[in-house]
Amino acid sequence: MSNSKVIALLQELSNSSTLPPYDEETVRETGQEINNTHSEIIQLFAETPAKERKRLGSSVVVRHHTIARNKRCILAYLKNRIDVIKQLRWELDNSIPEDVMQNFGSKEGEFLVKYDEILTQYIDDVGVDLCKDLQGPPQVLYIQARVLEDCQLPGDDQEEGRLLKKGTEHFLKRSDVEGLIRAGVLQHVI
Amino acid sequence: MQSLSTLSKIDDLKFFCGDEKITIQPKFQLKEAIFIGGTYGPFNSIEQCDVPFWLALELKRKQKCHIIVPEWLQADNLEKSYTTELAKKVGDPYEVLPYHYIEMATQLLEYASDDIPNVVKVRRLLEDLWTASITAGTSMIELNNLTGMELHNIRPIITQALTQFQTLSDSMLSQ
Amino acid sequence: MHFEALPTKRLPAQFTANNEFKLLDLILSNDIIDAEDEGGKGSLVQKIKTAALNERSAPELLEYKEELVDQIKQSLRSQKQRINGPFTEFQFEEKLFTSFQQMEIDRISYLLRSYLRSRIVKIEKHHSKFVSDETYHQRLSPSEQKFAQSYTDLIKSHYRESFLQSLPDRVNSGEEDAMTARINLDEYVICRVLERIGQIELDDQTDEFAELNENDVVLIRYRPIQHLLVEGKVELL
């Protein structure tokens, strides 16, 4: 019985702070074992004459439970992994590091692509960027900046950024204008 | 997906108290300002006006206003609240201070301490008050007459909740 | 809420470099003002805040607040357009207030995002329920319905292709549903009572009752206050 192997798999996942490599081998072996156990049940039935089948009771029940348990463990393994993958999509959008992606199973890679599709579709439908402020409420720092050359601020999901005229001063979100300050288009006043 | 289903954390509590109204004395002139949450003003140096707490803090940070200390944060009122808190027993209703009084007080002490008369005393009274309210409310709950199994059942819930509460209060005080 | 009266339409006629015209007078049109409105308790901001907190704390998904979400989005859009005009000649205070107005937009956007995100979290957690149970299905917005359906399909095909298809026919189905969390209406919640309610039944087995008065804050099972939440007589904290 590879039950202990499946449990070890779940323990590894729950103790790990990152996503461990997908264990295709154990998933496949457990599937194979379920098939074997299932064949045993069928064989038990086939070997036993109809009127004696009552005495099979416990051997069949135990095998059914083994199947159910193994199946449940693997599904829990799959589910907990895609929970992590979903979280990666929310937090990192499309910039999930290569070394994390390498630990995905082949189906998990497909899952991420499709999940990204349906989530992006929903976000487009509702017109609100849901992936902002995931860590908590906005605590935005504003700075006063002088405009050295005409320029346009970065926009957001709904609007174009506003136009700034040379020689004027504004209070602007620091995160919005860091690039413009580095480029020398804006000057940080206070 | 912990970060998505965020339960109320301290940052959120601080954020939510931002919508409470507070009175300021502006140090600038402006006829009025229209926000989604309402229209505020007129702002001038002779009239006081009410604005949301978050806006008051921003104006204060830019040195554009004095914040008028709310009554409950004045030393004599805090003293009264403290006396009531000490006298009350477990199960008595909590003292009627604003729902967000701790979050507001800590931010006022942080950003507008020069607007608070007797600030040292106020700070001390707040600490006393908070300690007293924890003591009255939660540092001990009687668990007489509970069986082993009953205790076992409630232990994780109660201990986690109270520990969380303690952590919350410690971090509020340390700020 | 009317969206037609954009400042950009009125601006050119009124706005000249020399007049005393002020940004904050310009934005003095009342299509975005969030006064204590006719329909309900409290302001728009208060409503989205309550909705976000209720949705965050309730163990089940609540009815989608379509009108509220639309109103909030509209207000955000109008206000953004107001403050994003190419204004350049204003006083220090006016520019300062533009940044404050932007901060308010950020604050309200956060509440809106929290609200919608809490819903998506619940839809994913109980996905098959929203596809199979008509009552719950009705509580979703059309976009959420689409999301719930696609998500359920995706999860099912992922389990199937990764594992279940390798199993014998008799045991390869059924448990996808078992892998979605049950909605537990007996979870405890912290709720504030908004108006006097009087006695409510806590448990029909034991005939336990509780008296709920205005401003009470109680730790209570969700089920007995479920209908009070829908009626807006209590809010969750």
UniProtKB/TrEMBL annotation, chain A:
Pfam families xref list: PSF1_C, Sld5
Domain DNA replication complex GINS protein PSF1 C-terminal per the UniProt entry, residue ranges: 141-189
Keyword Cell division attributed: no
GO BP annotations listed: DNA strand elongation involved in mitotic DNA replication
Protein localization: Nucleus
CDD domains xref list: GINS_A_psf1
Keyword Ion transport on entry: no
Main localization, broad class: nucleus
Keywords: DNA replication, Nucleus
Domain of life: Eukaryota
Domain GINS subunit: 61-124
CC annotations in GO: GINS complex
Family indicated by similarity: Belongs to the GINS1/PSF1 family.
Subunit details: Component of the GINS complex.
Function per UniProt: Required for correct functioning of the GINS complex, a complex that plays an essential role in the initiation of DNA replication, and progression of DNA replication forks. GINS complex seems to bind preferentially to single-stranded DNA.
Name listed for the protein in its UniProt record: DNA replication complex GINS protein PSF1
Species in which this protein is naturally found: Planoprotostelium fungivorum
TrEMBL record, chain B:
Domain GINS subunit: 72-131
UniProtKB keywords: DNA replication, Nucleus
A biological process term (GO) from this entry: double-strand break repair via break-induced replication
Gene Ontology CC terms, in alphabetical order: GINS complex
Domain DNA replication complex GINS protein PSF2 N-terminal, first and last residues per copy: 11-68
Alphabetical list of SUPFAM superfamilies matching this protein: GINS helical bundle-like, PriA/YqbF domain
Subcellular location field: Nucleus
Domain of life: Eukaryota
Family to which the UniProt record says this protein belongs: Belongs to the GINS2/PSF2 family.
Protein name in UniProt: DNA replication complex GINS protein PSF2-like
UniProtKB/TrEMBL annotation, chain C:
Organism of this sequence: Planoprotostelium fungivorum
Subcellular location: Nucleus
Protein name per its UniProtKB record: DNA replication complex GINS protein SLD5
Domain DNA replication complex GINS protein SLD5 C-terminal, first and last residues per copy: 184-237
Source organism phylogeny: Eukaryota, Amoebozoa, Evosea, Variosea, Cavosteliida
Keyword Nucleus (UniProt): yes
Biological process terms in GO annotation: DNA-templated DNA replication; double-strand break repair via break-induced replication
Keywords from the UniProt entry: DNA replication, Nucleus
Stored Pfam families: Sld5, SLD5_C
Protein role: The GINS complex plays an essential role in the initiation of DNA replication.
One Gene Ontology CC term in the entry: GINS complex
Main location: nucleus
Entry similarity comment: Belongs to the GINS4/SLD5 family.
Transmembrane regions: none
InterPro entries found in the cross-reference section: GINS_A (IPR021151), GINS_bundle-like_dom_sf (IPR036224), GINS_Sld5 (IPR008591), SLD5_C (IPR031633), Sld5_GINS_A (IPR038749)
Residue ranges annotated for the GINS subunit domain, each copy included: 67-162
